[in-house]
Structure formats: structure tokens, C-alpha cells
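We close this part of the discussion by returning to an individual protein. The amino acid sequence and the C-alpha cells for this protein are reproduced below:
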Amino acid sequence: MRRKDGFADTGFTLLEVIIVLLLAALMMGLTGIFVVQHMSSQEIKATASNISSVIKRARTMASANWKTQEISFDMERGTYSANGRQYRVPAGLTVSVSDAIKGEISDGTYVFNIQPGGQMDGSAVILRGRSKALLIKGDPVKGAEVSVLE
């Protein structure tokens, strides 16, 4: 359709442009929220997997060398170490230890002793994130087991 001045009536009104921009901003904002939540969920899983691997490796070393292995957790600094290597827990995650006798320990240093036969005391590591908590405990068959803490 042609207007009186001879130009074609094409293009978008200001209201249409504003609506499209608002919808685009809304979608970008929601996407950002989901990406951040997914990243924090992956971060806690990766850290739990790493702690589990450290426990499994220490059990293997204890059995192979017939020598007690230690895994040390420093809850205040957010670090853990084994076999001379130190690992850092990512920011936003906290580590505590569930001891069979003392209960939950969330400050100071705690040392797991893994005996030459691969036996580990009844303690477990608790890894907490913003919305999830994982329990990592020694397992006589698998070496270490990760489960969701309710």
C-alpha cells in the first residue's frame, strides 16, 4: 500500500521494536541465570570427582607400597593434599569432614589415614555448594563413593 507522499508503508513501528528488544533482553537474562547455575553444579561435581580420585589413588598407593597414606583436609584454607600434592577447593564451595566419633568438623585440619590393606577409617568428606551437598566416603570395592547429601 502506498502513502499519499508516494513512499511504500514498510518498516516497523517504535512499539514493535521495543517489544522485540524487551523479549531479547528477557531471554538473555534467563539464559545467563541457567548458565551460572549449571556451571556451579558442574564445579561441585568436578571437585567431588577429584577428591574421589585422590582417595582412590591413596588407597592404591597404600596397597602397592604397603605403607600408610595420608590425605589432609584444611577446611579453613579450603585445600586438601596427598602424596606431596596440594589441591584447592574452588571459591563458593566448602569442605567439612564427617567423623564417626567427633561428628561434623568444619574448621581446622583433618587427616585421613589409609592403611596398607586399603582400609580407611569411617569418616567421610562433605562438599557443599550453593544448592547442593555431596558426601564422599571410602568404599572397599570402588575405592571411593560420591552420593548426594540430603
About this structure: The first helix runs from residue 14 to 65. The mean pLDDT is 86. The chain has one domain: 14-148. Strands lie at 69-74, 79-82, 85-88, 94-99, 103-105, 109-114, 124-128, 133-139, 143-148.
